[in-house]
User: Fold this.
Amino acid sequence: MNKYLDIAPEVQEALAAGKPVVALESTIISHGMPYPQNVETALQVEGIIRENGAVPATIAVLGGRLKAGLSKEEIDYLGKAGTAVAKASRRDLPVLVAEGRDGATTVATTMIIANLAGISVFATGGVGGVHRGAETTMDISADLEELARTPVMVVCAGAKSILDLGLTLEYLETHGVPVIGYGTEELPAFYTRKSGFKVDYRIDRPETLAKTFYVKQDMGLGGGMLVTNPIPEEFSMDADVINKAINEAVAEAKTLGIHGKDTTPFLLAKIKDLTGGDSLASNIQLVFNNARLAAKTAAELSKLAKN
Assistant:
């Protein structure tokens, strides 16, 4: 047991019994949407994971402790605190722990803590990637490097469409990260089902996803796997509408000099305003969809681990 890590009793019991567990990030609670909608959504996602046969483990840093599994009260605390809670990536963990501070975990940090706890499957909305203009800014999300090094399967709706999707795929290929399309050969672009870019492989069943990840680890290849699960058709946004909003938001961020880890929260908030809230509604539904798939896949993975 890592001396900096606390695992919630329900999660610890499930792991000890070989039952499926799905990790969830907490940045979506503190930085993703307003209170109380953020807390309501987080609890709904946990409920969906339970309905599909797995135990949820929302990840965060509280009082300098790495947490795998939060109580309703802790989730409510993060929701109320909002952006006052630090957005924690790999580089932030030593300071937050040393100073006894709170942190809402990004994809990268959630992977780290999930792996420390022994959790192999993680459901989120979208992953970070190579930002537009990265050839001059070098703005590349730490999520990609974490996928290359940490053995956790990340189920998402693709890379956020505010990014340079082509360069994001190239980066993942260079680092040996398999990009799987669940039921699709095309990389979903978060708010929309299509991007014009191909994934590495199409897989149509949770049991095949689980076996692929199991074999990757059993072969000693290490590293993570990215499963891209398209937003359900009925919640997908019109590509022209969302792309127009993204382009406007990116231009404004550039004008204001916004960069680094402030970029994504600014762009998502701006896109929400430009789309009249439609982007937030789509965001919530795609997270629900990813939670279902992650729970089913975790259940299949737990069967393989027992054999």
The chain has a mean pLDDT of 91. The longest helix spans residues 278-306. The longest strand covers residues 55-62.
